[in-house]
């Protein structure tokens, strides 16, 4: 038998070739390893082995060796034709994304559906059977090997397919990266071991747990909460938990203590810390970086999303695509937008990281902010991770929104348990550090007058335009405006300045959108909060007298509405807040909080907890597994955003040059994210039309006129909503 010729899968910048067989086996082994986390190693291996068999065609070989002369070739469909759906959908979409299944009667070649793809004619690739004769199992049966939970169909099956897709895509990227750029190939071994992380955490918390001298009651309660969380993390099984800790109770550190001991007890992989979608992740990531070392923490801002193209033969572009985020670090800090939109996404750039949620502890900070129009789909996704993928989920908040009944729809037998029974009634009084008052309706002039009477004050408003207007009316000494249109590195610097001014007793007046309400430890003597919801008011109150150094009576938090500043999107939450204030004298009591959430959901109606029908969509028989449709429907931020990078210093230029040279890495993308500002797509288009940004590499847009970035208020846009929802 004549020797089979060598088939090339990739060609690196130096002209070295990786054979198709080498790539398929390498990808199969990695996919198998990743899928073993949920008991599907054999299915993973099969997907990896088949995913690129289309590269055995003569047409592809001509294309890869001479891309300028030969036309584009579909090499993803071949593997899908050699198996059956739904496994075939995973293979067919490993470049272009998971597609809608289509309809067996009406789908046609070229219509963008999977069944349409199966009707397409592709070049002959029969040599794969000879080259892989020893590796492939021709008796393989996907239906028999898939786990029981995937056989139920509907949402469970779709979730399983997306997880399998994630395993394949990440394995494909990593194996290719290993060949294309061996120096920065697989970074999974570059992080500290769990034992080292626990040791670092113990060193950080030692002053809490072993204090010297007299300890204030507030710190005693924080220590008690921390100890209880660490103990429960060691003793409790994997599952679904709540952590209800009063604002200022140290829940960030306490939840991390629980997570570390849970991971140690059950040999889990990593910690995912999810920040509310209306907030910023800067300070939380900074705290964890201080504890564990910056190299062990990924602070995932919005940024570069590059999907692979099966016809891309440019090594520089390929290497940049391979560097997209995959959440392989021990500690990930991200936003709810990144987290949930990825879980419902269909593109490789967003789905690549999903399998790394398996066997992890996922902490949802301020769980009450889970977006109401998508509440049931979000809960369904969390339920899948807990029930079928070995995850522990912690709903962490000071205002627990009572979600157990919704979880029972998806996990009837799973009981949600509170981690920390908390302090006694007497000890809880320690956390009552403020007096909440209703200031009623104010004009802008009245609000400005109130703010300027205070040397140190925080005012949180619902609109960016309002924040800018108020900022311009404040006394110049020590005034700050915080929005998500200030790039992260700049925000960090400003927050550090604010902390120091507060500590020194110097004038410090801050106007902010809601981004400051979670994950930012600031301590003001007085706070004003424009009407939003009760949870927002209580979170704002957490920025007042945080360390308990002033009396409750001296620490006032005012809820107010602004004349002429109505916001239709907040009518239900504001209405529920007003009814709660009318009914309860103490609006931050557990009774008032329970009333608020119940009343709020009644105003919305049960049908609005899955506004886009994303749970039912998987049962539509006329279009099975509508992945692309679901991805379009699931948008926590209705307006798509684009990232503009601010060339603030020479460091940014260095990062951009590395990306332009085709030597990007996840580390470079992570660092560049510190200089990105996400803006609504319609505003981004204005920047394009006016020639204010340059595309320096694929999907990398850089501001070319620094006059459009104000050192105090950030990227200059037309006035619009600014409650932090543009950050993803």
Overall number of strands? 21
- Give the termini distance in whole angstroms: 57 Å
Mean model confidence by pLDDT: 85
Helical content stands at 40-55%
* Radius of gyration from CA coordinates: 27 Å
Q: Major sheet, described briefly?
A: 7 strands, parallel
Instruction: Please indicate the percent range of residues in DSSP E strands (runs of 2 or more).
Output: 5-15%
The chain-level structural class is: alpha/beta
How do the strands of the widest beta sheet line up side by side?
A: 5-6-4-7-8-3-9
Annotation field: number of helices: 29
Poorly predicted sequence stretches spanning 5 or more consecutive residues:
313-322, 719-728
Backbone shape: globular
In short:
This protein is 41% helix and 13% strand. The protein is of the alpha/beta class.
Any overview of this molecule?
It is a single chain. By secondary structure, this protein is of the alpha/beta class. The protein is 41% helix and 13% strand. It contains 29 helices and 21 strands. A seven-stranded parallel beta sheet has the order 5-6-4-7-8-3-9, with helices on both faces. A six-stranded parallel beta sheet has the order 10-15-14-11-13-12, sandwiched between helices. Strands 17-16-19-18 form a four-stranded mixed beta sheet, with helices on both faces. Helix 27 (650-660) runs antiparallel to helix 28 (666-672). It starts with 7 loop residues before the first strand and ends in a 13-residue tail after the last strand.
